[in-house]
Specification:
The chain is of the alpha/beta class and 540 residues long. Helices cover 21% and strands 22% of the residues. It has helices at residues 11-26, 209-218, 230-234, 255-269, 299-312, 342-356, 423-436, 454-472, 503-509, and strands at 37-41, 43-46, 51-58, 66-74, 83-84, 89-92, 98-105, 115-125, 128-131, 133-139, 170-172, 175-177, 187-190, 223-229, 272-279, 319-323, 361-365, 369-370, 373-374, 397-403, 442-447, 476-480. The longest helix is centred in the last third of the chain and has 19 residues, at 454-472.
């Protein structure tokens, strides 16, 4: 173990550590005198191991959450070259005494000797600091290369990763890729509620929010599409619909601060977050007008809010990007100019976000009517065939569509005994041409069903079969609607008890997960399947 601030540290790191500890002590909360002591413990691993772990350890459990920020404070290993930096925050829940800080190692197959990175605590709440710095050692083992190693293998053809390190993503040749150019598979869920008058994600009236996120991770999902409203960003109202006995750490927080906590904890457990500007006002479902502006909320304000969010979460590696606006429809048009031209507004908003935060993906949905055809609200990207989006950074663009069955609305292409045979052509016409022609990746931002009718089940089977290959190739990402059971249109993956899961729904989407054939309802959350109650309001 590294002796804290001993002579093995470079002078610069020693000085920085002393200043860091001094500032940390000054910021301890009022209960610090009786707080447990927090220590960082060294870690080491071979370069070929893929990761090296440092431990944050309390000498005894705390009755409150302990939170701390992290930073790299030196070392001869280079961030982004030898390793990918860990999540910038750590959280120890009441009763916990240890949490892992993981650095993903980039195995470069170069003989370079052992290297190390120093990790230091920043602000600490809820604990006293005993040792605020630790060393993560990467042991070079490149003297012997495995037979499978190919030094010149093209990374763009590598199998997509679904559990790689958090960090910025981009697009390349119609795929979503990580910093090394390796395709990344994104498979997740929508967890709504922040955009509603509750100003908090739903379900935490009956469960702990961290437990909920842990279950998502346990089921194999690696990203959360997190809807919010513009009203949330400036609301002074107290969030409601929260069991504060089970979520005591949310007491006194604003809705925006609750979103901060979710983003930070996603990084801790290794999940990604896609922020979704779901509506202007607090409410359920898409904005009634279908527009990103109103008589009391201008497009300029909308752009300012996008920039605000981009700056607020700029240094959170869990957040991969921003869905600029959910389901433009009604008067929204693709092209043509004017205040209701979504293509123009999305280009403006996307470039404003990139100017503030150049590493985010920009997710742009379609409209309802485009190129002479009607489709689902926000799902029609047919106009992008002739009039594509042109961002200042083209390798940050991901188009997004929503796809639903006849139980949500009896669209004409969903009728007839053999309607499923026509679905691939319908999808190609409205959005699939984009990834098939490698114009850009596509996010299926919402799809789901109660799965109660034969037609819905046939629709789901056809959609999964259509998406299986492009999903495996990293050309299509997806977030299921919804995690919540209280969506009237589709229900959720959870049942009405907010804890059990619908085995039939998980089985239906299992082919899109990276490890088909495994039990998706595994771990401590396995429960019997319950039945949804009707008449829920849909926030989609």
């Amino acid at each position: 173990m590294t002796k804290c601030l001993n002579d093995r540290l470079p002078f610069a790191a020693l000085t920085a550590g002393l200043l860091l500890l001094a500032s940390t002590v000054a910021m301890l909360p009022a209960h610090a005198a009786g707080s447990p002591r927090l220590t960082l413990v060294d870690g080491e691993a071979k370069e070929s191991a893929g990761s090296v772990t440092v431990i944050a350890r309390l000498d005894r459990p705390a009755p409150w959450p302990v939170m701390a920020s992290l930073r790299i404070s030196g070392g001869d290993a280079q961030a982004g070259v030898d390793y990918l930096a860990p999540a910038p925050n750590l959280v120890l829940m009441p009763g916990e005494t240890e949490v892992k800080i993981v650095l993903t190692i980039r195995d470069d197959k170069t003989l370079e000797g052992d290297e190390a990175a120093y990790i230091a605590l920043g602000r600490v709440d809820g604990a006293q600091v005993t040792c605020g710095q630790a060393r993560a050692v990467i042991r070079d083992d490149d003297g012997v290369q495995s037979a499978a190693y190919r030094p010149n293998a093209p990374t763009t053809q590598a199998a997509p990763s679904s559990s790689g390190a958090l960090g910025p993503l981009a697009t390349l040749n119609g795929r979503i890729v990580d910093a090394s150019g390796r395709p990344v598979r994104l498979h997740g869920v929508n967890w709504f509620g922040l955009e509603t008058p509750n100003l908090a994600p739903h379900g935490i009236w009956t469960r702990g929010w961290r437990q909920m996120m842990g279950q998502m991770k346990d089921l194999g999902f690696n990203i959360i599409r997190l809807p919010y409203s513009n009203a949330l960003l400036r609301s002074k109202k107290e969030p409601n619909g929260i069991d504060f006995y089970k979520n005591s750490d949310l007491k006194g927080l604003s809705g925006l601060e609750i979103m901060d906590k979710i983003v930070a904890y996603a990084g801790v457990i290794g999940m990604r977050v896609l922020l979704d500007n779901h509506r202007i006002t607090s409410g359920h479902g898409a904005e009634d007008s279908g527009l990103w502006h109103s008589a009391t909320f201008s497009e300029d304000q909308w752009v300012q809010d996008l920039v605000f969010v981009a700056k607020r979460y700029k240094n959170h590696p869990a957040v991969i990007g921003l869905d600029l606006f959910n389901e433009p429809h009604n008067a929204a048009r693709w092209g043509g100019g004017g205040r209701n031209d979504w293509r123009r507004a999305a280009t403006r908003g996307g470039n404003a976000v990139l100017a503030a935060n150049s590493k985010w993906l920009i997710i742009i949905e379609g409209v309802a009517k485009a190129a002479g055809t009607h489709y689902w609200d926000g799902g029609n990207l047919a106009g992008a065939r002739q009039k594509p989006i042109r961002l200042d950074r083209p390798n940050r663009l991901v188009y997004s569509t929503h796809v639903y069955p006849a139980s949500v609305y009896p669209q004409p292409w969903l009728k007839g005994r053999n309607f499923t045979k026509n679905l691939p052509n319908v999808w190609r016409k409205h959005w699939a041409f984009l990834f098939e022609q490698q114009e850009a990746p596509v996010l299926i931002g919402e799809f789901g069903s109660h799965m109660k009718t034969a037609g819905d089940r046939a629709w789901m089977k056809a959609l999964i079969a259509f998406l299986k290959r492009p999903v495996a190739e990293g050309r299509v990402a997806w977030t299921y609607w919804s995690w919540n059971p209280n969506s009237g249109d589709t229900g959720g993956l959870l049942t009405d008890d907010w804890e059990s899961t619908h085995a039939n729904k998980l089985a239906a989407i299992r082919p899109l997960l990276p490890t088909p054939g495994t039990n998706p309802d595994r771990g401590p959350f396995r429960r019997s399947v319950a039945t949804l109650t009707p008449d829920r309001r849909s926030p989609g």
